[in-house]
Design goal:
Blueprint lengths: L19 H16 L3 E2 L1 E6 L2 E8 L2 H6 L11 E14 L7 E6 L5 E7 L5 E15 L2 H5 L11 H7 L3 E10 L9 H9 L4 E7 L11 E9 L6 H10 L3 E9 L2 E2 L8 H13 L1
Parallel strand pairs: 3-4
Antiparallel strand pairs: 1-9, 2-3, 4-7, 5-6, 5-7, 8-10, 8-11, 9-10, 11-12
Amino acid sequence: MRNEPQIFTSLQRQDAPVDPEILLDLEDDQLVESILSESIATKQITIDGKLLNVEVASTLKDRVQGLMGRKQVGSDGMLFFMDGQPASFHMKNTYIPLDIVFFNEQGRVIKTDQMQPKTGRSRCNDNVAYALEIPMGDAKRRGIQMGSQLSTKIRQLKESYADVVKVSFRLRINVNGEKKPTVTDILTDIRAIPNVVTSNQEGSRDAAPEGKNMIMIDMGFVDDAEFGLRDLQRDLLAVRGVDMVRTVSYGGEPYVRHQNESLLRQVVIEALQADS
């Protein structure tokens, strides 16, 4: 995990003395809970021609989070897009023993190392373009060593993430009744929308300012000539259990207020205009 500014959680402390170790455990549990709804895109890469399915940590938030809080990797590993500078990783709140592999801009392995849960650290003093975390022992098992070659298409993969736009929505959901989808079902369907790279539920259900039956979603999607914000809004509204979509921010900036009305209303207006 990248040694960058940390994401800290907050706890409301009571007046009565609290065992510091218990407090740290509670903070760790909060951190784990906060990242369980995060989904990071899985892509295929090769090292010396051998295929791996890896999650891609392309943003600063993804790199800081890394594999924190997990009890298992969930794929073959996690690939980090780095900034071409010396890099340090640490294992705070990470419970899986890991191998870490550092690559240069040409995709050649320039260092391999191992990190133990919670306390492990690793640093590469050479310029790092990519880093790969995999379960401990996998580097040796897969024959990954100094000079091993990452897929020649890795640059295209990295460049494809340059077009990812961050966007935030508030969704009104209908999950009441036996035949209604759960919040988990809704999030799963959202992650299957074309061009969606990441999606994360921010806070708990009903945490949005509008209150009951509202959830807040942060997403990353590839906004291109074939699929734009309007397409994403329509696909969100088509997800079973979603009956209102409100865009909050786009590209890190607040969405223009006069455009920030529910898509449901826009669709109804357009339908009425078409019938008139």
